[in-house]
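Dissemination and training. As part of the outreach component of the grant, students in the summer workshop were shown how a complex can be specified as a set of sequence lines and then modelled as a single object. The example used during the hands-on session is reproduced here so that future cohorts can follow it. Participants entered these lines:
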Amino acid sequence: MRVGFFVTCLVDTMRPGIGFASLKLLEAAGCEVVVPEHQTCCGQPGYNSGDHKSAEAMALKFLAEFETFDYVVLPSGSCAGMIRVHYPDLFKHDPELSARFAALGQRTYELTDFLHRIARLEKVPGTFQGTVTYHDSCSGLRELDVYRQPRALLATMPGVKLQEMVESTTCCGFGGTFSLKYGELSTRMADNKCQHITATGADAIVGGDLGCLLNIEGRLRRTGDHTTRVLHVAEVLSGEEK
Amino acid sequence: MQNNAIDFKRQVTVKLADIKLQGALSRLQSRFVEGRSAVISEIADLPETRNAAAAIRDRVLNDLEHWLLQFEQQATARGAIVHWAETDEDVNRIVAGIARQHGVRTAAKSKSMVSEECELNDALEQAGVEVMETDLGEYILQLAHEAPSHIVAPVVHKNKEEVADLFAEKHQLPRKTGIAELCREAREILRPAFLNADMGISGANFLVAETGSALIVTNEGNGRLVTTLPRVHVAITGIEKVVPTLEDVSTLVRLLPRSATGQSITNYVSVLTGTRGDADHDGPEHFHIVLLDNGRSKLLGSDMQEMLRCIRCGACMNHCPVYQNIGGHAYGWVYPGPMGSILTPLLSGLEKSPDLPNASTFCGACAAVCPVKIPLPDLLRKLREQQMERGMKSRQETFMLKAWAWLALRPNLYALATRIAVRVMRLLGGKERLLHRLPGAHGWSDGRDFPAPAGRTFRELYRQGGRK
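and obtained this result:
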């Protein structure tokens, strides 16, 4: 399987280790992974802020770079949702392009969804020891139905104990530019999430979207929690979390 | 009703700091979210039922004029009089006229959000009609001179203690504390109002085209009293509430109470058809149905038409993490939560409600529970697009978006810019690897630290063949 890997702008800039962790997992699953050199951003910030035009331009750039792969995989449910669900919608006025985007979208997967359902990875390289709790990021959950996939993969790790938090599927308050425009409200939502995390007593909060994880980590640290680890699921599964 | 949504941001600050409100809102989760979850699975074919419900609503909206005219014809044939109101003021004028025509001095009213849209009570008081709200929540709000903060549970923002204080003050009776005692006290005051009212005013959850009926779902029984005891009944609702048949209503009523209050069915489902006949024991002598447009017809055929599917269950706000944290009043107009964040700009002006389409994380919890499958986040996004097209976004935001897109379409420049940015941020993060202040993004850093980046981008590390 020839897989095009889209690292996402947040992982590229903020936590490149998640990118390498993802590559390790894809290779463990037997994939031939290619990282197109000129990839940047999927266009979601503009799209969700009402800037339809710039999102179209970025979607076309994405199509040119990724259309030839058997599969496209991303370590983010939010960006994968953009490509699978929203790219075809952007080009409704152009049936031919829309169909090409729909075809690309059907081959595009969030990382844990791909590893579990498509590549059927049964043994992961990671050796994490400890209790974790899982935050379900909104787009992955509601646009792509990612819920049991990361849990199934974590369940293959003998050292990992999953302690579910209450309301794991409630938004953490990130919401991209929402977290900047409505900082106070966003912080309150993050606070609610952090309380649920803390109540589990887990060693680490794990999730599949770096935006949410930065939001959660930012609030935990500001409120004086410097010990709960905040990890992307790829880091835990790959053993690249150290 | 005046739209105060312009004040949204300031209201958010006020509501987040309101401890009583926060306590009251914390009940939403157990009462409505868990309530819905417990009964919605009783519908074995839920996805198909939601599809059917959406299709019923779309069938009507695609030919609304036809269904409204059929409704008018059927209602008229059974003795009702249908009135068409283009604006909220038209509703007030029509209802005041009906009151005058029948010599009405007192009116008993059951819950109607459309009447809130019109501020009908004030208009009737000015016309010399004494109006009494008889839905318990609405009655409490009438005493407190407040607007509803939720379309189904209007007084969800108040706790029992506040109601006890209010009753003691307004009723001039010893303060009660138990819910049963408080309800009894309200019931004793409301009972004569039902018996003495010259006119009953209600809303309508649905209008049935094939029979000309107005249908209301209620729990307290006040709706049935208001619509059958007084000699005049006026039902007020929006033009979009019509459905073709009673069979269609039965599909929608399987979803409405379950989505709204977590009930399999409400205590009362009243199908109000025509005036009192010779053989009838009760019912009004005069039945007027007032149908309000107020901007709804403009949405027909537009890319916002799906919003008119709404059956006002309130599930979107019950499940909205923004609503759950600020309550309904912050939204500034009649309808709060996700459906309100779309309806308020559409019916009352986008320029007066600039925050509402933006105050959403697009988490999608609303669309996931909407019984008629309104794509609420997509509609909010379309309003953001309108703001962009009409130049209503701040210069700073527009610049940032355009600059980001410009850069992201130039990969080499993007690579250079991101390499510099992550190095600077890494340095600023210091030993702690945390940024306590983000210049130009204090919305983030007022309440959160920003975890510093690693200092090298993935793409440059990958290119160098390295792994960290």
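Chain B touches chain A through 64 residues (CB under 8 Å). Students were then asked to discuss how this feature might be tested experimentally.
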